[in-house]
User: Fold GNAT family N-acetyltransferase from Microvenator marinus.
Amino acid sequence: MTAAFQPSQTTIRRIGRGQDELLKSFLERDPVENLFMLSWAENFGTAPPSQSDLFEFLALEVEGVLSAIALVVAKRLVLLDSLDAEWSSHFGEDFVRRGVVLEHVVSSRRCVSPFWNAYTRGGLAARLDRNQTLYVLERDAFLSQDWGTTTEITLANSFDIDAVFLASARMHAEETLEDPLERDARHFRRHVEHRISSERTWVWFNERRRLLFKADISAQSSYGAQISGVYTPPALRGQGIATRALRDLCLALFERGYPRVTLYVNDENDSAIRVYEKIGFARHSAYETVFVATS
Assistant:
């Protein structure tokens, strides 16, 4: 007589403070794919200092074994990693039960897809779903070549806020098909100001103070730095500006000691992909960003 199939026993729990090594050992299986989560844990810990909704790391245990991790930021953004991609679906089911309404889902495609399939059973839908590729540039490989700086890229400061604010809004509208100035201009400006004050925005202006290039650093830690928000004004594209500025930005980041730089790009953005690969970025894995329809 054949024994009946017994489903695996799964448990989802919040990872508490003091469990850094447990989290790190799991995510360090792929420090490139998990750079954002590893950086978050290094900078902010495994849990907020008080009971708040600022963020939470969730652990999925299968038969008592840690098998998947989710980082939820402000109940709006989730990142995922899983030993078996299908186990990510348990987080989606859990969020539906708890009524968690996200705005973004960002991670490797193998984890996002099963999560999203389970999460949409709660009646939610995607406003925009981007298939992407995660790229990585390793420090030693980059510095083995003789790179000379050709731009004046530098950290943005408070005097740059107006130019960076407009460039960030235009980049955001291009990327998400949503104008942040129409949705909540004040909130978006505060977000840009915070990035500048925390030294996470780099800019290149010409001698007439025209902004040629800007990029943000969305994660930075001993594991590396992740670049996002890369923008060159449309009228200046195709002139090699982004290639020169991004190359100099990577050089500046490596000189600060970061072992690698990562970024992800939409699969249909051929011009950006050419820039990244020309600098030396290598494809790492399929990535995906889902923007949730919240209204």
Observations:
- Residues 10-123 form a domain with the Aminopeptidase fold (CATH 3.40.630).
- The radius of gyration is 20 Å.
- The longest helix spans residues 180-197.
